[in-house]
Amino acid sequence: MTRLYGIIGHPLGHTLSPLVHNWGFARFGIEARYEAWATLPEELPAFMARVRETPIQGLSVTIPHKTAVMDFVDVVTDLGREVGAVNTLFWRGGALHADNTDVEGFCRPLVVRGIAPGAALLLGCGGAARAVAAGLRRLQVPRIGVTGRSLDKARALALEFGLEPVAWEDRADFPAALVVNATPIGMSGRQEGVSPYPAAAWEPGRLAYDLVYNPYETRFLAEAARAGAGVVPGLEMFLYQAVEQFCLWTGRVLPDDELRPLLRQALYGG
């Protein structure tokens, strides 16, 4: 029998998750399919009843359900509780579990590159920033600053995760070897061509990590590269969170060297 997986969120737009997971099922000869289910907030209770009745074997969760869905599962992992949001649902021993693979998705590109910064600055205070904050703590970065246009929000996130709040206007003065953009600034659309970080602050030996993956090279990354700093494009985090998700569902590891060009072709045509 074909096993059923999918993603819920609203809006889903042109989500790449069906491409990734259906490719993975085909590659490993797994009889399963992955679908996109646009789900409004008021539709979430009925959909989660369907998850148990169908049953749906695994679920990706995106905005706006990453927190609300936690009320409809049997077990939330320690990491999911730490982040305060989940993006992956799976079954273990008859119980529906919720976990967060965004943290692994963020950490893995740094680990494979052997990067262990002494200090990091997190730009942004939203949901994506929470996963990054948890990831930086997991990597045991000694000093972590967080900044946003709202200093109150930066302070609240700093208090929760043990970070240092930094005023937005002072962000270039924080001595960070790694700067992570967890804001939508630079994303394709009306914010494309804008950077959340001053170009003059970049220098060799620093690293820019953008969670925005469309366009592939944001202004944030381009300015860092021109100054001789290293860069990690946002596609890397998306790729590795999907790899971790697929592994939770199937026990199989998607080969990143095969998945990366597939995603690049779908996103950028090359």
Structure, briefly:
By secondary structure, the chain is α/β, with parallel strands linked by helices. It contains 9 helices and 12 strands.
Largest pleated sheet? 6 strands, mixed
Task: Report the sheet-strand fraction.
Answer: 15-25%
Our Rg estimate from Cα atoms comes to 19 Å
What class do helices, strands and sheet pairing give?
Answer: alpha/beta
Total strands = 12
Low-confidence stretches: none
Mean pLDDT over the residues: 96
Query: Looking at this structure, what is the CATH superfamily of the largest domain?
Result: NAD(P)-binding Rossmann-like Domain
Name the CATH architecture of the largest domain.
Answer: 3-Layer(aba) Sandwich
- End-to-end C-alpha gap: 36 Å
Protein name: Shikimate dehydrogenase (NADP(+))
Pathway: Metabolic intermediate biosynthesis; chorismate biosynthesis; chorismate from D-erythrose 4-phosphate and phosphoenolpyruvate: step 4/7
Function: Involved in the biosynthesis of the chorismate, which leads to the biosynthesis of aromatic amino acids. Catalyzes the reversible NADPH linked reduction of 3-dehydroshikimate (DHSA) to yield shikimate (SA).
Binding site for NADP(+): 78, 211, 234
Characterize the structure shown:
Its EC number is 1.1.1.25. InterPro entries: Aminoacid_DH-like_N_sf, NAD(P)-bd_dom_sf, SDH_C, Shikimate_DH-bd_N, Shikimate_DH_fam. One of its GO terms (molecular function) is shikimate 3-dehydrogenase (NADP+) activity. Involved in the biosynthesis of the chorismate, which leads to the biosynthesis of aromatic amino acids. Catalyzes the reversible NADPH linked reduction of 3-dehydroshikimate (DHSA) to yield shikimate (SA). One of its GO terms (cellular component) is cytosol. With 270 residues, the protein is α/β, with parallel strands linked by helices. It folds into 2 domains: 3-100 and 241-268, 3-Layer(aba) Sandwich (Rossmann fold); 104-233, NAD(P)-binding Rossmann-like Domain (Rossmann fold, 3-Layer(aba) Sandwich). The chain has 9 helices and 12 strands. It has helices at residues 17-28, 44-53, 78-83, 102-112, 127-138, 151-161, 219-226, 235-250, 256-268; strands at residues 3-9, 32-38, 58-61, 75-76, 88-92, 95-99, 119-123, 143-148, 164-167, 178-181, 207-210, 230-232. Strands 2-1-3-5-6-4 form a 6-stranded mixed beta sheet. Strand 8 (143-148), helix 6 and strand 9 (164-167) form a beta-alpha-beta unit. The chain starts with a strand and ends with a helix. 43% of the residues are buried.
